[in-house]
Write a structure and sequence with these properties.
This protein is an alpha+beta fold. The protein is about 25% helix and about 25% strand. Strands 1, 2, 4 and 5 form a 4-stranded antiparallel beta sheet that branches. A 3-stranded antiparallel beta sheet has the order 3-12-11, with no helix packed on it. The structure holds 2-amino-4-trifluoromethylsulfanyl-butyric acid and cobalt (II) ion (CO) (2 copies). The site of one cobalt (II) ion has 5 residues, from loops. One cobalt (II) ion binds next to loops.
């Protein structure tokens, strides 16, 4: 396993890619309304990425081994869909929760981020799941610093999530990111402190917990991509791309309209 360390030029490139990724999520927010289809969101994202941001959608035709090429520019995972939902022509309806996961390539560098969007008014349980999953992601981010262990991140997320009665999906994880979409290491969202690899300044990873309101088990849909909860309970996910710094972390996928950072997050250099 080789984890890439970005030099100053790489970090500069990752900062730009990360910011544009967040700006794409900002751009999509007002369109996520009852009646819009996820295909419409996909097409808006593709046009904005290429025409406004001058970037490339990394998911389009992405074909990791064992998968058919991904057919769309973004992933849209609705309600009990956990991740990798393929956009389609079904309109979103009031009360749905949808994860929009976007990855773009700018000057050869990748940015990867996802947010939950609530479609109109949603149930108390759905809102709680979205908010707690956001907080769980930040609990993991707060562990990032030079010398920290990957197990520290997983443990922070798992203990927070399970303490709230939510379950952590095990089969998908965060990842290193840079000139490639998915690099080493794997960033598990569960685990034990002081285990697995140690982070070093200049590494860039994603933290992207998937939490279920019910049991953690998942299953694959017949399309070769979409993942759903086995018990059909609601699932939520948030994702940031994070640079490891000597004293802490720098979240690269922030923008003007990123959701507010939780109050429990203490500033990091
Ligand atoms: N964006 C996802 C991640 O966070 C990966 C999606 S792969 C795709 O790692 F092909 F489905 F787009
Ligand atoms: Co990712
Ligand atoms: Co992603």
């Amino acid at each position: 396993m080789t984890i890439t360390i970005k030099d100053a030029q790489g970090i500069a490139g990752m900062r730009v890619a990360g910011r544009l990724t967040a700006e794409l999520l900002d751009y999509l927010a007002p369109f996520v309304k009852p009646g819009v289809t996820t295909n419409e969101l996909n097409d808006l994202a593709e046009a904005y990425t290429t025409e406004v941001l001058g970037a490339i959608s990394a998911p389009l035709n992405y074909a990791p081994s064992g998968h058919n090429p991904y057919p769309k520019s973004i992933c849209t995972s609705v309600n009990h869909q956990v991740c990798h939902g393929i956009p389609n022509d079904k309109p979103l309806k009031k009360g749905d929760i949808v994860n929009v996961d976007v990855t773009l390539i700018k000057d050869g560098w990748h940015g990867d981020s996802s947010r939950m969007y609530m479609v109109g008014e949603v149930s108390v349980a759905a809102r709680r799941l979205c908010n707690l999953t956001y907080e769980a992601m930040w609990k993991g981010i707060m562990k990032v610093r030079d010398g920290a262990y990957l197990g520290d991140i997983g443990h922070a997320i798992q203990t927070f999530a399970e303490g709230q009665g939510l379950s952590v999906v095990r089969e998908f994880c965060g990842h290193g990111i840079g000139a490639k979409f998915h690099e080493d290491p794997q960033v598990l969202h569960y685990g034990r402190p002081g285990t697995l690899d140690q982070l070093k300044a200049g590494m860039v990873i994603t933290i992207e917990p998937m939490l279920n309101a019910g049991r953690r088990e998942i299953k694959e849909m017949g399309d070769g991509w979409a993942i759903v909860t086995k018990d059909r309970s609601l699932s939520a996910q948030w994702e940031h791309t994070v640079l490891v710094t000597p004293t802490g972390y720098e979240v690269l996928t922030l923008s003007a309209n990123s959701p507010a950072i939780p109050a429990f997050v203490t500033p990091s250099a």
